[in-house]
Specification:
The protein is 39% helix and 26% strand. The protein contains 3 helices and 5 strands. It has 2 domains: 45 residues, no CATH class; 77 residues. The chain has a 5-stranded antiparallel β-sheet. It is an alpha+beta fold.
Length: 138
Amino acid sequence: MEIARSLRILVYLSILHILMLVTMLSLLGVSWWSLLVLIMIMLSGLYYGQQYQWLNNQEVLDKIERDTSEKWYLSYQNGKQSSGLTLASSFVTPQFVIMYFYNSAVWQRRTVTIVHDAVDKELFRQLRVYLRDSKTFL
């Protein structure tokens, strides 16, 4: 399944960061702490913008695949691939899916969020059905 940019994630992250900025500035007033908070919120916005493909980043997830032995493969824009991951758990809604993968190495654990406007509608529907009851596909 190819994963593209999601406009919904961009809107969500923008609203979230603006609300955090307004809230923190109203609580702190004008001080050195407010400058520190402003910098932290801006860095957070840049980080998540890169993670969800809105800023140029070659280490962005762009494809997810599953083989017949229930192993998952995550492909990134820079050509790297995480292979042999096992699906530990998932959270499924009609708008988005969150998948938590693990491997034998702790540093290779990964959480993937897929929003319905970033992928093919039919493949997203099949993924949701599979994650709700994987025995359906056996």
